[in-house]
Amino acid sequence: MLIRAFRLLVWLAPLPLMVWAASDPRFRDAEGLIDTSFCLWVTLALLSQAAALQLIDAGRRDRCRSRDLRPFCVCGNIVLKNESKAAAARLRQAFFPSGAKDDRPDAELLLDLLTRHRDRPRPLEPHTVETRTLQFLVEERRHLVDEKTRQKNRLTAQLKLYFPQVLAWFDDLDAPLVGALLKRWPTLEMLQRARPATVLRFWEQHHSRSRRRNQQRLEAIRRARPATQDGAVISGASAAVGTLLGLIGVLRQGIGELDRKIRQLVAAHEGSVLFNQLPGAGPALAPRLLAAFGTRRERFQTAAQWQAYSGVAPVVVRSGQRTRTRFC
Question: Which residue has the higher pLDDT, 314 or 57?
């Protein structure tokens, strides 16, 4: 709700600012005319405040993105500054102990905060085009991987209803072999009616050539007993399994395409040498580290500053004789 309220405030911000400028001497120059440049600065500062609500530090997500900032990031003559949302919230709590919340008082608090401390917020400096492209790709890849995991869990739940033996025969349910097997023989009864030579040839065509393991699977198929004889459960679950296999296949293909683009982008990126040499940074983690640190690494002069930005820095809190340490 808070983000939605600030988004609404963003698009309505210019009108009240111009109204305030007509009556507030702070918005007038030496000749008594309205200082429109300062009004524009305050308006853009409010846009920055709304965008800050969506900024997630690099320790928690792969990149920081705000749709409200995109039209302004391409303007070379506009400097955006980021203001902490916690500062505005604590000001509201201090001046409105009742917990009242309204857009106009929030805008007035932000205006007061920005006019008194114009030099404190840091300017928002976008990364290079290559780095921002990599940030998009690694985050979308993460979303696809999470979605594939969700669909895999749904597939597991459906198989447990009527065909749980597949979970023991294969280690990875989202492997192409499992999908092809379930599409050709969607039930245990159909698989048991197939000739062993046909099943063996099918496995070999899908790169499962371990003779010992294939024989063990054939013996397990021969001895298997159906989990249920209910035709409704078998028909419904097998239909759902077919749909889920299609979704998993599309997601697998999409992840592979993103992996290809990420590899090409990382190979040509100037910072890839540093992150590829880190211990434990493989083809999936190294691009995410590169996207998290970005190309504006001069913002952090020490490791402690990066820890504070990513939310893993220990912070000492003292009150009287009590002392505790928490992570910011």
Answer: 314
Structure tokens at 39: 């009004």
Would you state the structure tokens that stand for residue 299, as one six-digit string? 């913002």
DSSP 253-307: HHHHHHHHHHHHHHHH-TTHHHHHTSTT--TTHHHHHHHHH-S-GGG-SSHHHHH
Q: Per the structure block, which two tokens stand in for 311?
A: 């939310």
| 49: nearest Cα among 92, 20, 96 | 92
Which residue reads 């990599």 in tokens? 134
- Looking at per-residue pLDDT, the higher value among 232 and 97 belongs to 232
Contact 314, 326 (CB under 8 A): yes
How many residues can be counted in the chain? 328
Cβ count near 286 (within 10 Å):
19
Q: What is the mean pLDDT of residues 11-21?
A: 50
Q: Which residues on neighbouring strands pair with residue 197, listed in sequence order?
A: none
Dihedral sign of CA atoms 166, 171, 172, 178 in order? negative
324 phi, psi to nearest 5 deg: -145, 160
pLDDT per residue as tens digits for the range 99-115: 777 878 777 877 777 77
Residue for token pair 């997630």: 56
Question: For the stretch 178-187, what's the b/e string if a residue is b when 16 or more beta carbons lie within 10 angstroms of its beta carbon?
Answer: bbbbbeebbb
**DSSP-based helix, strand, coil % in the chain, nearest 5:** 65, 5, 30
Q: Are the C-beta atoms of 249 and 147 separated by less than 8 Å?
A: no
